[in-house]
Write a structure and sequence with these properties.
This protein has 224 residues and is of the alpha+beta class. It has 5 helices and 8 strands; from the N terminus they run H-H-H-H-H-E-E-E-E-E-E-E-E. This is DUF3426 domain-containing protein.
Length: 224
C-alpha cells in the first residue's frame, strides 16, 4: 500500500496570508459588536451621571436627606412651635371657660391676656339665661320702673346679659325701645351664679309725649 498524504504527521505552520504583514496591515474589527469588553474605555463620571435617573437611587438620596440630624432638629422645632401656637389660640378663644373650670390656669391666662390685651370674664351662654319674672309699672306721669329676675340654668356661672326693653301702645306698636347694658344695670362684670337667680330694678323715663300711650312692653335678654 502506498502511503497517503493524510498519513503524514500534522505540522503547524504560519498562515501564508498573515506572514509578513505589518501590524498596521492586520485586519481591524469591522463593527462595535466585534470589540472585546476590555476594549471599552471605563468612564466613572458617566456612570455617576446616570445614577440620578434611577428611581430607587433618587428615593434613597431623598430618605437620606430627611435623616440628617439638622433636618430632623428643624422639623421637631417647627412641630413644637406649631403645637404651642395652637395651644395659645385655643386658650385665648376659650379663656373664660378655662378660667372658670380650671382655676389653677387663671394666673397663666391672666398673664396671656396682659400680653394680648384681653380680659377674662364669665362665660356668655344666653341659652342658659331665662327671664323668670318681670314688671313695668308707672311711678309718675312719665316715669316707670322696670323690675325683672333672671335665672341661670347652666351648671356654671354666666355673665349678666344686656336687656332690651320695647314699650308698646294699645295697638302693639312700638313707642320706644331702649337697651340697658350691664353697666347701666349696675352689674358691670357681674355674674349670675350657677343654677341661681339675679334680680334688678331700674327707673325708665319716657317723656311727656309717650307716657300716656303705654299699654305694654317686651323684654329680651342678649349679649351685645
Amino acid at each position: 500500500m502506498e502511503p497517503s498524504p493524510l498519513d503524514a504527521p500534522f505540522v503547524f505552520r504560519p498562515s501564508e496570508v498573515t506572514v509578513g504583514l505589518r501590524d498596521s496591515q492586520l485586519p481591524m474589527p469591522g463593527s462595535e459588536s466585534q470589540m472585546l469588553p476590555e476594549d471599552f474605555e471605563h468612564h466613572p463620571d458617566a456612570e455617576e451621571d446616570d445614577l440620578p435617573d434611577v428611581s430607587f437611587v433618587r428615593q434613597g438620596r431623598r430618605k437620606a436627606w430627611w435623616r440628617r440630624p439638622g433636618v430632623r432638629i428643624a422639623l421637631a422645632s417647627s412641630s413644637l412651635a406649631l403645637a404651642l401656637l395652637l395651644l395659645l389660640q385655643l386658650a385665648y378663644q376659650d379663656r373664660d371657660r378655662l378660667a372658670l373650670t380650671q382655676p389653677s390656669l387663671r394666673p397663666v391666662l391672666e398673664g396671656l391676656c396682659s400680653l394680648m390685651r384681653c380680659t377674662i370674664s364669665a362665660p356668655r351662654q344666653i341659652e342658659a339665661v331665662t327671664i323668670e319674672s318681670s314688671g313695668f309699672n308707672r311711678v309718675r306721669n312719665d316715669t316707670y320702673r322696670l323690675a325683672f329676675t333672671l335665672r341661670n340654668t347652666a351648671p356654671v356661672q354666666v355673665a349678666v346679659p344686656a336687656m332690651e326693653l320695647t314699650i308698646t301702645d294699645s295697638q302693639d306698636q312700638t313707642i320706644a325701645r331702649r337697651v340697658l347694658t350691664p353697666a347701666e344695670l349696675g352689674a358691670d362684670n357681674a355674674v349670675i351664679p350657677a343654677a341661681g337667680e339675679w334680680s334688678r330694678s331700674v327707673g325708665v323715663v319716657l317723656g311727656p309725649t309717650g307716657g300716656g300711650r303705654v299699654a305694654g312692653y317686651r323684654l329680651l335678654a342678649f349679649y351685645p
